[in-house]
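Ticket 4471: requesting a sanity check on a complex prediction with magnesium ion. Repro inputs:
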Amino acid sequence: MAKNTLSFVCQNCGAAYNRWQGKCDACGEWNTLAEEDSTGNVPVSIRSKRKGRTFALESLSGKSHDAPRLSSGMTELDRVTGGGFVRGSVLLVGGDPGIGKSTLLTQATSMMARAGHRAVYISGEEAVAQVRLRAERLGLANAPVQLASETSVEDIVSTLSEGTVPRLIVIDSIQTMWTDTVESAPGTVTQVRASAQALIRFAKKTGAAIILVGHVTKDGQIAGPRVVEHMVDAVLSFEGEGSQQFRILRAVKNRFGPTDEIGVFEMTGLGLREVSNPSELFLSERDLGSPGTAVFAGIEGTRPVLVELQALVAPTSLGTPRRAVVGWDPSRLSMVLAVLEAHCGVKLSGHDVYLNVAGGLRIQEPAADLAAAAALVSSLVNAPLPTDAVYFGEISLSGAVRPVAQTSARLKEAAKLGFGRAVLPESARGDAGDAGLTLNSVGGLTTLVAEIAARGTPRGNHQAQRDAEPVEKNATPARFRREKG
Ligand code: TYD
Ligand code: MG
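Returned structure tokens:
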């Protein structure tokens, strides 16, 4: 029997120590160790005497009844989960406070309940009246959702064990739950882990799908135990800029589906609206005819998404120039800048460089290299790029432009949205198909830089440049000429 059942558990990563220390050796965070009872307080009688029971082993080819997946009724949510909720699975949804997690899940439970399934919403954070108020605002007050404001996992499990098995249970949030089996305070790693374990056990036993809401810390990690991320079947992250209406649901981990799909929503006065064509949304407020913007034809999961990249290259007043990037990998930006300097003679060491992906989207594809390079050079030489062109292609360290996957899907989407030409890797021409776009293929970055530079004049001579070459505003599809607001 253990003499000392107390230990110090890091509230960030869950590492346990037998004495206090200021810094967690496992994750490097300071002041995150808290004293907890880490044994789980299982009674000694059970621990020592319980004999393992035997169970039947089954074959892979056996038959399972019931549709394994259940559509949520929201296409964008289904896209991210990989086609609906899997029976007996547990999902963790993380996101900043106020991003719309409760709104999303209220909508999902209501849709399920309306479709005739038993759907339960347990809020540990808000009173029943508050949840009702939100449902009323969303126009969902008449949906037959079963609602409760509870935090005890044992009470929740016994209540839900009665009657028909719920198809969907939302627990908002896992950090507010607590279980009798451990003695630590609610919100501590041990409590969160034990509560999650109990709920996961319930899901596996009954076949109900459970969604756990998880808080995130300042730096975007799901607060408390990373261990919960390992325990659940899927981790979804709900992201967006507070000031903007777009919200993006992204699968970070998914045992039953892809992890590169995104679901796009718009927060309106009547809750979250699904956006089935994100390109239109990301391009709706384009700054036409300004230098430094390029449209990237990207792929998110199985879906092509067009998005504007915005660059600003300005002479620096600092010893070390600034490089700031939002929505793209900073090391990718450094690489593109280095290639521009080394192979294309573009001197950027005396300039601050800012790069932004419009609409709060986070791009992970290297295919964005070419669009980023075009936007950067366009800003440097102060030459707007053609407004009806899209860009994609990966840049190698040698300055060559390399092909990327799904060329024809990218081109089709661009054609659908009214674009007239595409700047793409030379070697991708063969996969282009017939989308009806003018193809401008480039083998090396130097070619593209020369083309853009030929259009431009140095900064400060902007008016002369405008006079010399009027921006072809009318070459742009009418839908992108929408006014702001
Ligand atoms: P909420 O779902 O409570 O966020 P979370 O659970 O992630 O903390 O959403 C809160 C925000 O959403 C709040 O700032 C108001 C806004 N909102 C709308 O704009 N429209 C709506 O219909 C609703 C319900 C909320
Ligand atoms: Mg909430």
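Notes from triage: The radius of gyration is 27 Å. Leaving this open until the requester confirms.
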